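name: query_chain
kind: protein
chains: 1
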Amino acid sequence: MKKAARKKHPARIKKKHQAKARRTIRAGKIFEKRVGSGIPNFDGLIEGGFEKNSINIAAGSAGSGKSIFAMQFLIEGLKKGEKCLYVSFEEQKEHFYNNMLDFGWDLKGSEEKGDFSFLQYTPEKVRLMLEEGGGSIESAVLTKKISRIVIDSLTSFALLFNDELEKRQSILNLFNMIKDWGCTCVATLDENSSAKGRVLSSNFDIESDSIIVLYYLRRGERRERFLEVLKMRGTKHSSKIYPLEFTSRGLVVHKNALSDQVAFKLGL
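structure:
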């Protein structure tokens, strides 16, 4: 028997209409207002920020800085008075909050004000959420009027599926649900980003709106970080590779890109 269509949450419908209303039309082309990343010198590479209501993937190997990249995106939202949600599949809340204090980010204080929410979810719970059409995460997003979401990380969720078709459909359903909520999302992905063009599976490449690759490579006697915008729909983004520096306040993108010769020597 065919299942009856699930009735959408009224707040979800309202947020979807609001997202459409934020679009402006100039010379017959639709433009979205941009959402700042919070990463110094990065927004200039992507026409001022992420598109509103988009799904953006920060991919990289361990130590590349992708979780901090995603967290700075939320910190920027908090500075602007937006409500933010961090969904973690692995990290414990207290441990995570303590680590973020190293950068001067008082997430506990933001949570007490009602501006920041932390959800520790297993990938299995997210799968159940998709089957239910939203579940408790949707209720939290719509009730608290969340506008920015981080998912850390998609890798654990993808491991639930052996069948590639089922995996792709589930990823698409997750991304579409976030867009229906009217949110802008940065999701991390664990990938061996040691060589250009060998980063993502086709599932994430096709379904996401943008892919930012963070490299963590050995250069001489030490490792260094670099950043590249691999793709971003509807955006004239830089195609260069930029040094990425860890500071006491988070990540900073260098203003000057690597020369083609240096990038080639690094295997990029």
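note: Confidence is low (pLDDT under 50) at residues 1-6, 18-31.
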